[in-house]
Amino acid sequence: AGSLRVWNYKTMATLKSIQDVTDEPVNVAKFVVREKWIVAGDRNGCIHVHNYEENEEVESFCAHSSCITTLAVHPTDPFLFSSSNDAGHLIKLWNWDNDWECKEFHGHVGTVTQVTFNPNDSNSFASASKDGTVKVCFSSSYLYMFQPYMLMVLCFYTSKNL
């Protein structure tokens, strides 16, 4: 079953263990510190939100038709990105302050492997895909597409200093 552990990376000690978050293996997890949450994506495409201080489930819902590949948390707004291995290669933007309202982004023809908010402009984001592209989105539409590799892009790095 899917469980979560919070580790001290210096001592390798388990600080918190949250059991039975889901019946499926957890593929990815992110902290939402301002909410005291851990958000986890599982193999069946479901998202599970857990309060790590109260050790309580906040929300759990089916987000995609296949395993979640990546999650990204907006630095200030109540937004969570998710993507998966689903056939539509969708990126979904979830608003937890608006009952988990969802907006979909289309454009990749391969599995989206990473989504990240721009550290210099949190109203934009970039996505990487196994289709070999990195796409940059401003104000709900893709404006730039980079094709740095012919095989696939699994991840990329963003920095405020670039």
UniProtKB/TrEMBL annotation:
Top-rank lineage group of the source organism: Eukaryota
Keywords on record: Repeat, WD repeat
Record Pfam families: WD40
InterPro entries documented for this protein: Coatomer_complex_subunit, WD40/YVTN_repeat-like_dom_sf, WD40_repeat_dom_sf, WD40_rpt
GO biological process: endoplasmic reticulum to Golgi vesicle-mediated transport; intra-Golgi vesicle-mediated transport; intracellular protein transport; retrograde vesicle-mediated transport, Golgi to endoplasmic reticulum
GO cellular component: COPI vesicle coat
Signal peptide: none
Keyword Zinc: no
WD repeats: 105-136
Protein name per UniProt: Uncharacterized protein
